[in-house]
Design goal:
The protein has two helices and five strands; from the N terminus they run αβββββα. It is of the alpha+beta class. The protein has one domain. A three-stranded antiparallel sheet has the order 1-4-5. Strands 2-3 form a two-stranded antiparallel sheet. A hairpin with a 4-residue loop joins strand 2 and strand 3. Helix 1 packs antiparallel against helix 2. The radius of gyration is 23 Å and the shape is elongated.
Amino acid sequence: MSETTTAIVPPSREQSDALKAIWEAIGRAVQSATHLQVVTILGNASVDTVNGLSEVVVTLPASSPEAGYSVLATNINLALGDIAQTFSPALLDGSHDNLLVLHQQMLDKGQTIVRDNLELLKSLVKELRASG
């Protein structure tokens, strides 16, 4: 009868550092994946992104009757269940119902994307745990 032994070899420092970096990246992804922001602007504005899509900078014109604008902004923290909404009263006068519907559609689509991304992250974490 022969005996087999299995040696457990600890990961090298480089492997440990790489694994730690992966887990930190997953943590950051989960944090950012739990926040959804949809901003709808009616009027002249410029939108730029910084750091890819991680930061959106919106420049609105100076307030004047000619440069008027209306804003509807919704922020959702999916982890805490918090929803904050800011809107210009002019958007609620009945003449912008299609814009409000579009804003809601973007919220719905964004929530679906966030939910799908969280499921993907969850499966990735399961795979990482199973492999090591």
